[in-house]
Amino acid sequence: MCYGYNSDGGCQKWEDKQTWREPDEVFERKDGRPNMDNATFEDDVIYGYSDCKVRCWRNCNCNGFQEYYLNLTGCVLYL
Q: Are 6 and 16 in contact (CB under 8 A)?
């Protein structure tokens, strides 16, 4: 029983559904200039793109994210 796909591309189970997200919400890759005043930096080099995506998805205030380092690790979450 799925309502959509999780960050790993697999089936999201009903019991795992985030109550603050709508079933039709998805991540879309976009270019822009986010407001750095509301950014949270997670500089852990073990975090990759999918880790950042999950951390953003689980935070109901997160509007977007990007990798922190040039080697595409760490996270900048835009709240």
A: yes
Q: Contact at 8 Å (CB) between 76 and 35?
A: no
pLDDT per residue over 12-36, tens digit each?
554 545 556 666 777 677 777 777 8
Query: How many domains, in total, are found in the chain?
Result: 1
Judge whether 14 and 51 are in contact, CB under 8 Å: no
Question: Containing domain of residue 49, as a range?
Answer: 2-78
3-state secondary structure of 8: coil
Give the separation between CA 28 and CA 60, rounded to whole angstroms.
16
Helices and strands (DSSP H and E) totals, the chain: 1, 5
Task: Kindly indicate the confidence band of residue 76, based on its pLDDT and cuts at 50, 70 and 90.
Answer: very high
